Amino acid sequence: xxxxxxxxxxxxxxxxxxxxxxxxxxxxxxxxxxxxxxxxxxxxxxxxxxxxxxxxxxxxxxxxxxxxxxxxxxxxxxxxxxxxxxxxxxxxxxxxxxxxxxxxxx
Length: 106
Fold this sequence. Notes:
By secondary structure, the chain is of the alpha+beta class. Helix content is 30%, strand content 29%. A hairpin with a 6-residue loop joins β5 (88-94) and β6 (101-105).
């Protein structure tokens, strides 16, 4: 299995924060990236709301606003967070060795 981190580059986001957001790419496929494209096409209002949350997360050390970001609850979910934008959700964790935000699933 080949696992890499790839930048999530979204032109609408502030250029200073865009490269802090990464997606997991497994065997050449970054599912979260494709799902963001699909969300933009099929649900543009939720996509715009999610972009606001993405920028909020990338611009701050930790987001405490639970209407936008919620910590995982339950065994095995420590350190996993959920970004919310309308009906859209992205799950992520903070890379403790850097300032990167790693989107791990949708």
